[in-house]
Design brief:
Elements lengths: L1 E4 L6 E2 L13 H6 L5 E2 L1 H11 L3 E9 L3 H10 L6 E5 L7 H12 L4 E6 L2 H9 L4 E3 L7 H9 L4
Parallel strand pairs: 1-4, 1-6, 4-5, 6-7
Antiparallel strand pairs: 2-3
Length: 154
């Protein structure tokens, strides 16, 4: 069985780079700064707890070109799991659509838990029948909601 985790706002603290999403937006700068994200201890503890009984899979709205940076960040913070599903190039659907589609592809392997900081994604996952938990340990900034749901960028 799998425990599927989002990254930004769940285990990675993105608050230091949210200023790049203010006008004028700079997506390249926002994503280039991802390697400097601090680890969110609450999320890391939950990953460690679920890793005792489940395979950890990462599911993020980050663009696929950020795969190497993200894998290095996960390894640097000693988080388990190497399987990673990132947003394909030019896929700007709302996060809830992208992530539920990936969860449906993972479903045959059994999804025991799905953790995300986006209430819309958690609601869509639960509606689709997945056991979803809202990561609410960091306040969700309006810029992040806009990036995830309206712009389909993270």
């Amino acid at each position: 069985m799998l425990a599927v985790f989002d990254i930004d706002g769940v285990v990675a603290d993105v608050r230091h780079r949210l200023h790049h999403l203010e006008a004028p937006k700079s997506w390249p700068a926002f994503f280039r700064a991802a390697d400097q994200d601090a680890l969110l201890a609450t999320g890391a503890r939950l990953v460690a707890e679920l890793a005792r009984q489940h395979e950890i899979v990462w599911l993020s709205g980050r663009p696929a070109w950020l795969r190497g940076t993200t894998a290095d960040w996960i390894a640097r913070h000693s988080l388990p799991g190497t399987e990673m599903h990132l947003r394909p190039a030019r896929d700007h659907r709302p996060a809830r659509l992208f992530k539920v589609e990936v969860l449906q592809r993972l479903a045959p392997r059994g999804v025991a838990a799905f953790v995300d900081d986006d209430p819309e994604v958690v609601s869509a996952a639960a509606t689709a029948g997945f056991p979803a938990l809202l990561a609410d340990w960091v306040a969700r900034e309006p810029a992040m909601r806009d990036a995830q749901e309206r712009l389909g960028r993270t």
